[in-house]
Task: structure prediction
Amino acid sequence: MELLIATHEGLASGLVSAHDMLVGKNDQIMTIELNDSGIRDFRRRFAELMDRHQSGQVLILTDLRNGTPHLVAKEYEEAHPDSVRVVSGANLPMVLELGHNLISANLDDVARRAIQVGRGDIEVDKMQLA
Result:
């Protein structure tokens, strides 16, 4: 299984950079970012990247639900329902957790774990609730 982090410019590469610094490089993690070259170019690069990984399963983390990277990824998931899952709200705890569980994991289990970890690590210290 592969992990693809698809985000707006700077976020995916930043998440992977932090992952690599904390736990080491993982060749199963790929990135693609929407930049100022536009949506058409992003779609082309996304298709090229996914074509290289047709034989395996891919979990795609996106930054913003219904943003361009997410919508492009969802189109690919709809075309490949047996091998692709998309989870929005990418964050560093997700990437760190998933980086350890990609080798022989079940695609749906990994997607569920991403959601669990992403939600579970959101907290406010010393917040006063009204």
